[in-house]
Amino acid sequence: MFYISTLDQIKIAYIGGGSQGWARSLMSDLSLDDRMSGTVALYDLNVEAAQKNEIIGNNSGDGRWRYEAVSTLKKVLSGADIVIISILPGTLDDMETDVHLPERYGIYQSVGDTVGPGGIMRGLRAVPMFAEIARAIRDYAPESWVINYTNPMSVCTRTLYKVFPGIKAFGCCHEIFGTQKLLAEMVTDRLGLEVKRREDVHVHVLGINHFTWVTAASYRHIDLLPVFRDFCAHYAESGYELEGESWKDSVFRSAHRIGFDLFEAYGAIPAAGDRHLAEFLPGCYLKQPETWKFHLTPISFRKQDRDRKQKETDHMVQQKQGVERKASGEEGVNIIAALLGLGELVTNVNLPNQGQVAHLPLEAIVETNAFITRNRVQPIVSGALPKGVEMLAARHVSNQEAVAEAGLTKDRGLAFQAFLNDPLVTLDRRDAEQLFDDMLSKHQPNF
């Protein structure tokens, strides 16, 4: 039974507690929320990173939360009400291989963490890690709620359920928030109305992580799909950018041209950024990023960003500084509050398919809205994807199921079949096998 004594005794277990991104966002959001207090236990294979976050966390906010770095999964999980998983499966050197080695074969990737050759390799690395985490949750915190932020979201979350079927886990992703913001800007651009909060734009979402779609949207009484059709027609060729914010200024920005193109093809709004969307389809977009006005994010950028954050971390520790008390825009703290009985919330989550997405396999991880309240996450039945999108998504679901199974059983043949079936792998079998072997042996020689 899910039970806590009082809301000042909550224990959050953070696996990946040395994080310089998600963990800092959690610290900031907890410092701004006065409904709860307790302990945040930080576990990380990089013990020093977790210890630094302990110092930063304990200098953040008003002391209602105590941060503590711990050395084992047993210690972090014992007594936990909420478990957060935010880890990097492997290293940035691994990711460099994931993203850039396929370029020798003419295969380009914009992110490399969900699908494509890079997403598959990352998934094969992540599965054993998530299997270990699932067993530890089963043994030490079986009634806790588990929030996963790690990519590949579908493969990681599916592994948790395969290893511990009784787990209460779901995946969270903020891509849909960006789509809500785009729709809010559209309402201003096309209708001249100001939308104060992106949550005021209501969206009906379904699909799989990073390939999620909006089949209905509204603001107040206004149906936004016809408005988006007009918006799309106006900006399809030029792309859409806020004044003074060029897509060229950041590797994470785009001009939404891929999203507009896919809307014209399928009649639903893609609810992810162009960098993610491009990887779910054959490589036409990825070979012309300048034309489509988005970026292939190089791992050199991620390494530079890591080094910058490490310097910031060291400075904060030396100066005994906490995080800036500024809302991150994430919904993690509101989700935790709802699970603890402090309100209700509807937001997008990734859960095993129990029929909430028609025609996709049962038990596969799908993304829809869910109703969250005390000790309950109830996915909202969302119907079917447009048929053309369903066919594309089904191929990736099949691959994700295969990667999770191959990672658990060390079935190299099954892993290669998923690799060969990915839409970005447009190679003959011999070249595909050579690339697969090279990628796998680079950082997973014992697979």
TrEMBL record:
Domain Glycosyl hydrolase family 4 C-terminal: start-end pairs:
205-425
Q: Return any one Pfam family short name.
A: Glyco_hydro_4
Q: Tell me the cofactor note.
A: Binds 1 NAD(+) per subunit.
What SUPFAM superfamilies does this protein map onto? LDH C-terminal domain-like (SSF56327), NAD(P)-binding Rossmann-fold domains (SSF51735)
Instruction: Provide the residue span(s) of the region labelled Disordered.
Output: 304-325
Q: Which controlled-vocabulary keywords does the entry list?
A: Carbohydrate metabolism, Glycosidase, Hydrolase, Manganese, Metal-binding, NAD
InterPro entries with a match to the protein in the record:
GH4_Enzyme_sf, Glyco_hydro_4, Glyco_hydro_4_C, Lactate_DH/Glyco_Ohase_4_C, NAD(P)-bd_dom_sf
Top-rank taxon, per record: Bacteria
Named from the GO MF annotations, one term is: galacturan 1,4-alpha-galacturonidase activity
The EC code for this enzyme is 3.2.1.67
Cofactor names:
NAD(+); Mn(2+)
Q: Which family does it belong to?
A: Belongs to the glycosyl hydrolase 4 family.
What is this protein's name? Alpha-galacturonidase LplD
Q: Which organism is it from?
A: Bacillus halotolerans
Phylogenetic classification of the source organism:
Bacteria, Bacillati, Bacillota, Bacilli, Bacillales
